[in-house]
Amino acid sequence: MLCGSSYTNGTPTDCWALAKPMDEQTLRNLLNLESEKSLDRIQIFEEIDSTNSELLRQIQAGSTENQVVIASSQTAGRGRRGRQWLSPKNGGIYLSLARHFSMDANALQALSLVTAISVLEALKELGAQGLQLKWPNDVLFEKKKLAGILLELQQKEALRFVVFGIGVNIELSADSMERIDRPVTDLNSIINEPPSRVILVAALLNRLCRNLENYESSGFSSFEARWNELDCYRMIDIEIQNGESRLIGKSLGVDSEGSLLLQTAKGIQRINGGEVFPSLRPLTE
Ligand code: BTN
Questions:
Q1: What's the distance, Cα to Cα, between the start and end of the chain in Å?
Q2: Is the shortest distance between the CB of 147 and ligand 1 below 6 Å?
Q3: Looking at ligand 1, which atom is closest to the CA of residue 50?
């Protein structure tokens, strides 16, 4: 049962707060002025295929608003690299934000790092200590995945939209954990009394909107040091898998554009795609 472990001192209050349906007005009241102003539309669904897919459809159909879609469950939640994102009812936060950007497609990588920093900072503000980042955009606790991010780009006539999809595990059943082929964790295992979903969503949106404004005005430079401080594989031997290709080296953290710097046997390489794993092999490539 989803709510099992959120009972504290014998009272089911947290469980109720997490399962309570969210309403737009309560959420708007929790948003700070700048995010409230920047969000033209907020849509809340009980169930949807994927919050990212819904926004991509709406943009395709002509919507030009900056908007958010939130769902209590997804029937076809999508992760990076074509993976499925398990999205049981109230088991996590499933949220997507669509915004148009004037910057070019190359900026997308840094945007995805800025999103991961925002998620970590919002969860930390709500009491989750010891969180770290894995390039390019995973939020981890004790090297287990707590949140994932899927950015998708959509060009509609002269406008370039980015859909920021955020999934945060709140309470995964043992069955769900078993179905995921990587180490995962959830917020209930990290915070004693997790805040309600609406508070979580508001904190995520507030932090993300503010960081996106900063990124648009000043670029990635102010985020570079923040990322490197929080990167759990920095100065560690890693393996980067990208399709069939594998690269081994020591991670030196990210540069001012958000590329990963890898010290390999052939020198420093700038990495712009792929998935990071801890390396068990010596640096021979
Ligand atoms: C990953 O780490 O693979 C990215 C996971 C992203 C999941 C979120 S949940 C909300 C949004 N809708 C989706 O279908 N995916 C993203």
A1: 48
A2: no
A3: 14
Model-level pTM?
0.90
- Decide if 2 is inside a domain: no
Does 252 map to a domain? yes
Q: Do both 115 and 13 map to the same domain?
A: yes
Q: Is residue 106 classed as helix, strand or coil in its secondary structure?
A: helix
Query: DSSP alpha helices (H): ranges in 126-264?
Result: 174-179, 197-218, 221-230
Q: How many domains does the chain have?
A: 2
Domain presence at residue 156 = yes
Higher pLDDT, 14 or 243: 243
Q: Give the residue, by CA position, lying nearest to ligand 1 atom 7.
A: 167
| Token pair belonging to 72 | 């209590």
Residues making up the chain, counted from first to last: 285
Is the pLDDT at 19 greater than 70, yes or no? no
Residue 10 has pLDDT above 90, yes or no: no
Domain harbouring 250, CATH code: 2.30.30.100
Instruction: Say yes or no to pLDDT of 11 above 70.
Output: no
Q: Residue 155, SS3?
A: strand
Residue 23 lies in a domain: yes
Residues 218, 250 within the same domain: no
Nearest-5° Cα angle at 203, 202 to 204: 90
Task: Return d(Cα 67, Cα 131) in angstroms, integer.
Answer: 28
Q: What is the pLDDT of residue 282?
A: 53
Sorting pLDDT into bands at 50, 70 and 90, what band is 106?
confident
Q: Which one of 47, 49, 150, 172 would you pick to mutate in the ligand 1 pocket, going by the greatest count of ligand atoms within 8 A of its CB?
A: 150
Domain C-terminal end among 189, 206, 229:
229
